[in-house]
Amino acid sequence: MKVSAINRTKANLRNLFATRPSLLASAVLIGLHDALTYDKETGTGGLNGSLRLELERPQNAPVVEGAKAIGRLAAAGKDGVSVADFYAFAGAVAVEVTAGPRIVIQLGREDAKVPDPEAASAKWADDGSAADLVASMASSSIGGAKEVVLWHGAVGVLGDIGASREAANAAMAGDAEEEEIDAMTYGDSAADSGVGAIGVKKRKGAVLVNSNVSTLTLGGKVKFGNEYLKALLAADKAGKKGDLSVRDREVLADPACRAMVEKYAGNNKAFTNDFANAFERMSLVGSRYESVKLGG
């Protein structure tokens, strides 16, 4: 895989989010929805690009628009970057362009040719209970209550950032910023070390790459962090449960999830670091790699 291909992938994703910031929240969910089909008993499913063949499933409704947009980027590219790699990289880029942490992603995935069986992902519906969400994470080897809260907080804050940026874009009459491909670089430290941020060694056939993109100029003051969880907890303590979504209330009602909300609402550094690590772990679930090398 050429460095130029990696740079183009990053630039295309960054420019997509610059012009369509409403897709930021969807970007961190796309990889998760794909990965949630992983069956640890059989070793099938996972983040393998099969989501593109599963968009008619009700549980995938929240990511249809984003998955189609990212799928079009993959289809238009001539670098041979798989849809699965685009799905994994999209979330990492969405986090970093909103001033979040850099996430290490292993590239070189093979795309699945057929849909994965419906499994735990069916429980990740908008009205799913917190217990179902935790079970969904656990059965797919992604995590538990901690990861449910990390994704809930990430999706929430990226949704707020996207709405703020959409308003700013409208005011700017479409004057969205785009980054030149030549200004982007791949993550040397990750590529050289062969070890990701969570200490996972590079898998055979994979290329380790940092997201390593510049931040977008946001339309508001919010940047990637624990702001959504702080607001969630504040609304609950103020008795304003009517301001909360069904998912918000479910997460707060579950003792294990609430404990994580309280932990991360009080520690932004822990939230951002733990999400980056959780996203990297999720991106490895069920991934199968071709034999690729980093080239010039």
From TrEMBL:
The keyword Protein transport does not apply. It comes from the Eukaryota. Pfam families: peroxidase. Residues 63-296 form the Plant heme peroxidase family profile domain. InterPro entries: Ccp1-like, Haem_peroxidase, Haem_peroxidase_sf, Peroxidase_I. GO terms for biological process: cellular response to oxidative stress; hydrogen peroxide catabolic process; response to reactive oxygen species. GO terms for molecular function: heme binding; metal ion binding; peroxidase activity. Keywords: Heme, Iron, Metal-binding, Oxidoreductase, Peroxidase. SUPFAM superfamilies: Heme-dependent peroxidases. PANTHER family: L-ASCORBATE PEROXIDASE 3, THYLAKOID LUMENAL 29 KDA PROTEIN, CHLOROPLASTIC-RELATED. This is Plant heme peroxidase family profile domain-containing protein. The lineage of its organism: Eukaryota, Rhodophyta, Bangiophyceae, Bangiales, Bangiaceae.
